[in-house]
Design goal:
- With 124 residues, this protein is an alpha+beta fold.
- It is built from two helices and five strands.
- The chain has a five-stranded mixed beta sheet, sandwiched between helices.
- The radius of gyration is 15 Å and the shape is globular.
- It starts with a helix and ends with a strand.
């Protein structure tokens, strides 16, 4: 079975969740959607911070490193969705942070191997 981009993204998100849990993050929500506004991949708590985390998975660097694809437009969407999340959860006074998890994979014969995971705290 060929791995398409959606499947690759799901594999990356699962790997990111495992990685974050091993690094003392408490996962609060995954794929939080605010209507048509957009979605945040992972909402987690680390110490006093509520972290809004974008996961980017890549099997090659043809289009640059994963974090480069989180453009200012995407950052603005994430900020707006985060504001909705905070409002809905009565957490407007919380300390927040925006992180990116880069997941690098190698595809071989239909299999996917995680080769590296980078966590970028305070990415934007």
């Amino acid at each position: 079975m060929k791995t398409n981009n959606k499947n690759l993204g799901n594999i990356g998100e699962k790997a990111a969740i495992d990685f974050l849990c091993k690094n003392n993050y408490h996962i609060i929500h995954t794929n939080f959607r605010a209507g048509k506004l957009g979605e945040i991949d992972i909402v987690a708590r680390e110490n006093e911070y509520i972290c809004f985390i974008e996961v980017k998975t890549r099997s090659s660097l043809s289009f640059g490193i994963p974090s480069e694809s989180v453009t200012s437009r995407k950052q603005n969407v994430i900020r707006k969705v985060a504001a909705v999340y905070l409002s809905r959860n009565h957490a407007n006074e919380s300390s927040v942070r925006f992180d990116i998890v880069e997941v690098y994979v190698k595809r071989k014969a239909g299999e996917v191997e995680i080769t590296q995971i980078n966590l970028i705290k305070n990415a934007f």
